[in-house]
Amino acid sequence: MGNYRIAVLPGDGIGKEVTKGAVEILQAVATRFHHQFEFVYGLIGGEAIDQKGTPLPDETLAMCRQSDAVLLGAVGGPKWDQNPPHLRPEKGLLAIRKEMNLFANLRPVKFYDSLIDSSPLKAEVIQDVDLLIVRELTGGLYFGKPSGRHVEDGEETVVDTLLYKREEIKRIVTTAFELARKRRKKVTSVDKANVLESSRMWREIAEEVARDFPDVKLEHMLVDNAAMQLIRNPKQFDVLVTENMFGDILSDEASMLAGSLGMLPSASLSTSGPSLYEPIHGSAPDIAGQNKANPIAMILSSAMMLRLSFGLHEEAKAIEKAVQQVLTSGYRTADVARNGQRIVSTKEMVNEIKATI
Ligand code: NAI
Ligand code: MG
């Protein structure tokens, strides 16, 4: 029996609905396996701006640092879209990643057989897909300075900077190799080395790291080709490792292999201190508050938390098995339902998974 303190940051939009579901699932796991999970709640994103005047209040950050792990829903929404840059919900997300040193974002993409008809792709392409995108999360274009607008030679000018330090590249590529060693032993390093100097250095460092992992195969792939290969033949991939923005885009694309954004969990590992777990989707303003969102991405994120932060493998498996079973029994939220299938709400889906656990 273990005691764990979990910081819950529901955020905005469907973030609130899906985190509520995940907490219920974790409570069911606690009961079944005799653990104590203490949940503490904090503000981040748009609601934090409304209530505290900042997208990441200090007390939220302090609370997260004093917890064993963090669960995050999603932030953002049209209400805050016209805000100045420092008062945008997404700033809260970038800030927590940076402040907690969440350098490695692990995004597993797994195909569930029972969703075979929900994907726009052919069965033979997606069946047995099991890949892991390792996205660098605290560098690159999202953080590089200079960034912003100014006037240059009388003309309105804008700049964003893709900046990495050697050690930042080394640690993310090393993480990818370590993970590949426990899987099918192949790393695809994705870059744009034909154009970008940052990518050429990334490639060099990947080669250096590879020497320490003779049992793991390294290949390089240009990001535009990788985008195409993910649809053409996703089964060729085991672990993909890439810089922040490439990883963001490729993982949304890869979510279609699993059927929906609402199916993909993620873990953000820290260099020190607690890790953070969140679905890869956003706050989905188009369906927020309608009890329609697929809670599975968030629920599978909480399973990743149990496994990676707490070492609770049986418990994580119990969640994953329950999800699989419920899908196999035909329960579908709207995003993964096909014509004629009965559609369940967020709450019904959560209840069914809970009952199965
Ligand atoms: P989104 O991921 O929120 O939604 C994209 C589409 O997928 C929408 O049609 C939505 O309804 C659907 N969708 C997403 N999650 C779903 C789920 N669990 N179940 C069923 N359908 C789901 O991305 P979008 O629309 O580009 O962004 C909306 C807001 O979310 C923006 O403010 C954006 O900045 C923010 N965002 C936040 C993220 C985060 O907090 N980590 C990540 C991505 C976007
Ligand atoms: Mg994204």
Automatic annotation (TrEMBL):
Q: What is its EC number?
A: 1.1.1.85
Tell me which residues bind substrate: R97, R107, R135, D224
Q: Which SMART domains match?
A: Iso_dh
Q: What cofactor requirement does the entry state? A: Mg(2+); Mn(2+)
| Compartment(s) | Cytoplasm
Which residues participate in Mg(2+) binding? D224, D248, D252
Task: Give the InterPro entries listed for this entry.
Answer: IsoCit/isopropylmalate_DH_CS, IsoPropMal-DH-like_dom, Isopropylmalate_DH
Q: Which GO terms describe its molecular function?
A: 3-isopropylmalate dehydrogenase activity; magnesium ion binding; NAD binding
Binding locations of NAD(+): 77-90, 282-294
Instruction: Tell me the pathway.
Output: Amino-acid biosynthesis; L-leucine biosynthesis; L-leucine from 3-methyl-2-oxobutanoate: step 3/4
Q: Where is this site: Important for catalysis?
A: Y142, K192
Gene Ontology BP, a term: L-leucine biosynthetic process
Entry keyword set: Amino-acid biosynthesis, Branched-chain amino acid biosynthesis, Cytoplasm, Leucine biosynthesis, Magnesium, Manganese, Metal-binding, NAD, Oxidoreductase
Query: Could you tell me the superkingdom of the organism this chain comes from?
Result: Bacteria
All residue ranges annotated as the Isopropylmalate dehydrogenase-like domain in the record = 5-353
The reaction(s) annotated as catalysed by this protein in its Swiss-Prot or TrEMBL entry are: (2R,3S)-3-isopropylmalate + NAD(+) = 4-methyl-2-oxopentanoate + CO2 + NADH
How is the cofactor bound, in the record's words?
A: Binds 1 Mg(2+) or Mn(2+) ion per subunit.
What is any one of the record's Gene Ontology cellular component terms? Answer: cytosol
- Name the Gene3D superfamilies on file: Isopropylmalate Dehydrogenase
Assembly mode: Homodimer.
What role is this protein assigned? Catalyzes the oxidation of 3-carboxy-2-hydroxy-4-methylpentanoate (3-isopropylmalate) to 3-carboxy-4-methyl-2-oxopentanoate. The product decarboxylates to 4-methyl-2 oxopentanoate.
**Protein family (similarity comment):** Belongs to the isocitrate and isopropylmalate dehydrogenases family. LeuB type 1 subfamily.
PANTHER family in the cross-refs: 3-ISOPROPYLMALATE DEHYDROGENASE (PTHR42979)
- Spell out the protein name for this chain: 3-isopropylmalate dehydrogenase
Gene encoding the protein:
leuB
